UniProtKB/TrEMBL annotation:
Transmembrane segments: none annotated. This is Dehydrogenase. The keyword Oxidoreductase applies. Keywords: Oxidoreductase. It comes from the Bacteria. Gene3D superfamilies: NAD(P)-binding Rossmann-like Domain. InterPro entries: NAD(P)-bd_dom_sf, SDR_fam.
Amino acid sequence: MSGWTLADLPSQAGRTAIVTGTGGLGLEDALALAGAGAEVIVAGRNPDKGAAALARIRQTVPGARVAFELLDLARLASVAAFAERMAGGRDRIDLLINNAAVMAPPTRQVSADGHELQFATNHLGHFALTARLLPLLRRADAPRIVSLSSVAARSGRLAFDDLQAERAYRPMAVYSQSKLACLMFALELQRRSDAAGWGLVSVAAHPGIARTDLLPNGAGPRSAAGLARSLLWFLFQPVAQGALPTLYAATAPAAKAGGYYGPVRLGETRGAPGPARIPVQALDEAAAARLWETSERLAGMRFPEAR
């Protein structure tokens, strides 16, 4: 897989993909998949940004099969409604990319359901989305789910005694926890699929350090992180480059079930995609099982039981 680029992306003709997020990495994912022939559903909470994403894709890929669907990951009722619409109009989903994220708002915020916003959006909403789309995914010939983690997961810890950061809110620590949860979910999903015979390929990926709007949108453009994004732009690789590990995980035949992929250079911050180092805390299967059970309780729904 040395030097894997978009030129190596296999044909996606006949596949239906859902990508969460209307800008940044999600837009690059959707653009590449549409260019490879997939039918792509761009799912996000802002219809105006959704329309702009579709316009960009259609301008770049004439004849692209692409649509926008409303999805607010921080609102579990919206996740359920989205899944119901998918079930009502489609016979299968081949690919789900759990990409959308909130990063480091300076003060603690909560979702519509009362959960801390980063945990709710980055992990819990995608957990519930995957569960609700599982029947459609299982109808595909080779269903694949990609969950986006981050280099920040390396410093993440699951604070089960304060998972919602009610006692202590530190923006980046809470972000790191949410991204560790995304990685642990991807690994646990593969284990449970293998045990239950769901036939899924669950893969995790991270973009390194990419020039998206995640920092200024979350921490704010005048925050230290936001200013670093603006003034030290040369340290951030282009968004299209940052999307390559996700696209490799989503499409490459060599991407391994239960694998983790990211850029291979400079401490996994930039470069071509390759295997990423899994932080030791992400390999704690007991903690992953506890996170799964806690997520089911918080989301108010359950995955099917393993056989």
